[in-house]
Specification:
The complex is a heterodimer of chains A (about 375) and B (about 550). Chain A is mostly helical. Helix content of chain A is about 70%, strand content about 0%. Chain A has 14 helices and four strands. At the A-B interface, helix 1, helix 6, helix 7, helix 12 and helix 14 of A face helix 14, helix 19 and helix 20 of B.
Amino acid sequence: MLLHQRARIGVLSAPAGSAPDARASAWFLAALALVAVLVPILNLAVPPSSSFHISAYALTLIGKYMCYAMLAMAVDLIWGYCGILSLGHAAFFSLGGYAMGMYLMRQIGPRGVYGDPILPDFMVFLNWKSLPWFWHGFNHFLFALPMMIIVPALLAWVFGWFAFRSRVTGVYFSIITQALSYALMLAFFRNDTGFGGNNGFTDFKDILGFDLHSDRTRVVLLVVTIVALAASYLACRTIVSSRAGRVLHAIRDAESRTRFLGYSVESFKLWVFVFSAIIAGVAGALYVPQIGIINPSEFAPINSIEVVIWVAVGGRGTLFGAALGAVLVNYAKTYFTAALPEVWLYALGAMFVLVTLFLPRGIIGLLPTRNRDKS
Amino acid sequence: MMNIRKGGQWLFVLLLTIWGVRFAYAQSPADAELLSTLGELREASFPDKESIVERLTKSAHPSVRSVLTAFMEERLYYRNDDQKIVIVKSTEGDPPTLDLIDPLTLKEGGSAAVDSLTKIVTNNGLRRMLRTTIARFGLSSPDAAVRAQAVNDMLASLDEPTIALLQERLSVETDGKVRKAIATALALAELDSSEEAKQLAAISVLRGGISQNVRNKLADVADQTAPGGSAANGAVHKAASSAIRTIDRWRTFYSGIETLFFGLSLGSVLVLIAIGLAITFGVMGVINMAHGELMMLGAYTTYVVQTAMPNHIGISILVAIPAAFMVSGLAGILIERTIIRFLYGRPLETLLATFGVSLILQQLVRSIFSALNRSVITPAWMSGTLQLNEALSITYNRLYIVVFSLIVFAAIMLVLKRTRLGLDIRAVAQNRTMARAMGIRSEWVDAMTFGLGSGIAGVAGVALSQVTNVGPNLGQSYIIDSFMVVVFGGVGNLWGALIGGMSMGIVNKLLEPYSGAVLAKIFILIALILFIQVRPRGLFPQTGRSSENN
């Protein structure tokens, strides 16, 4: 086994920030900009009768893919560049989503089914008399916004601190993160936890005073999501091409050696993990107003694992590959679950197997590159 | 062959029946008396029926007891055409024709349509009387268990004659258990006495009991004798209350043991799953996310075997164990040969690929068996409960699972420590290069190891089919728990899997009453994360060269 272990090193070690990456970055950002300009025009300015018109459904779908692309990028940052395979990123995504959901629930106000000005419907239904302490403040967007970042970050920090400090690595870390997500799912399924139990939050009315059901609001949300995606891409790219990024590479390829060279491996891992959780949380927060629902099934372990396959399909350790993988796999999922529902799980399963066996670099690895394979 | 034997059995039964019928006509005077007394039941009012029952009790005919039992269970009928009294074998399921039993000989004698028979009806008072009467018969049974049961049946109506009967029996009874039951019954009767001394004596006898019956009765007495109660008496009240406290302590103790047992049985399921994982995950360094689905295959194999032999449900589960081992083991070897062997040394990739396999297997059983749960029948010898005492009973299926998991554990230990294959497996796990140098075919050993681990998953699936629903999601519901067992116990150590699984099961069940099942899981997860702080490599860490592989 020792022998195999050594063989792993060097499977993926494209130098960060090399020339092809810079060119691909430009292409990626240009593509995002194109979507951000074209989709609003095709939705708002082109009449519905035209075949170029993008419907509200398609708009939501694109918004969803963009959120997933952000989540995939968050996973790629730690998996592709630091070798940490998290099977619990759906938890951070959902926590961000729940923070946004709490704000949206408070915005409903007296327009709920039971008409209670303070309590969301599910609390009235459960016969609660007052708002639980952790719900206070969520009626202000300026309070909810930092919460969408702080809550996932805090969980990642506490969890990561414990895990990295005791050198839980590799598959152990994956399993523990999966168990974390699973435990959170169970907790959120309970009515007493105070987050709407099984049904979660839905039936949102508006955000910052804008109607969530109008195309204009949807378009703005989509553009905000694309901007956030581009911003997180630039942030991740900056991190991985910095000197700190090189240490992350070193940790991925030879953790013990990096430690012996005097780097504090634990703190590097911890901070990149927390940053990744923040990106996931923001993605979740942007996901909820566009999809219009958040419930505990978002925490399901399979969701986290699906994110990993998006990254693997796209190509890990490239960032834009993760985004590409997220969009492609989800497009396939949308298509298959509608057209051939029973085939989808076979296809997904086969994708896992074939990509790991035959495409260790993902789709990006298939693109003709001149000097990528130098290493 | 089978048919001939079956035919033979039928012939034998037929001969017996004819023989029985022939003798039924040769009536003795006792038979004649019984028949005529029974005949009176047809027209009697309820009070008359009671006196008839008493007369029947006094007659010494050997089949009176069975007739009265049938009467109590509402299986006593008379035929409309010849007015003859008959016992019906069973009325369960409302069959159109009923199998008849002759009340004199107690042999089976033909059958009759439901509407050609009239039931001899009973009411609550009559049934209570019958129960006590039958219990009296039981009291003289040669079987001690029947006698003890008879005493318990009498508790419901402790009247003068019953008490006299019990006292009489006590003087000749030799069996300790029955003596104790009679003493309890007599003490319960004494409780109603108006004399303080007798009541106190009764309470001191009952103090040692644990049944709900005794406790309720004592609580009644404590209420009545409380200050201001209908029969206020300080001393008796104090004694009764203290006895109740003692009983409650014992009952709590026994329910604690029961919780422990539940924990052990959940733990054994986890152990069964974790043994297979410990082999593939521990010995080979391969993380197999499809392990849960291999269990699912084992559970479905049980279902298929049962469907294939519907007349031998009792044996089918025993057939299913090797079958499931083969099915899951072969599936495991197939997975190893086609996927995993290309990914050795890349644990994260293996995790993803096997996860893909798990999705495919899930969808496969959905396509073959539909997404609905299949029901696996629990064989008769595995159902029912083992009543240890009045406060503690243990269900057989849980008991068998505990035993089964220990057997599987011992078997795997033997394979690993005492066979050539086990030696090879351990050698390759410790130092692959050296093992190859010594001439061990490591590829073959890998495949066998993976097959072994997967086969055990299949066997675990057979056990799971007895405690949970067999459906496509069977594997997922246990897999996260069992991964945690392996992390807790220490990778690659079977003892770790055993102790880790059992303790996780017990802690889970101990926490459940206080926090609910969900919070118990969350607590365990947090405890596990904290535990890893202290012992990062589990309870039984691997030592030596192979532990330094990251």
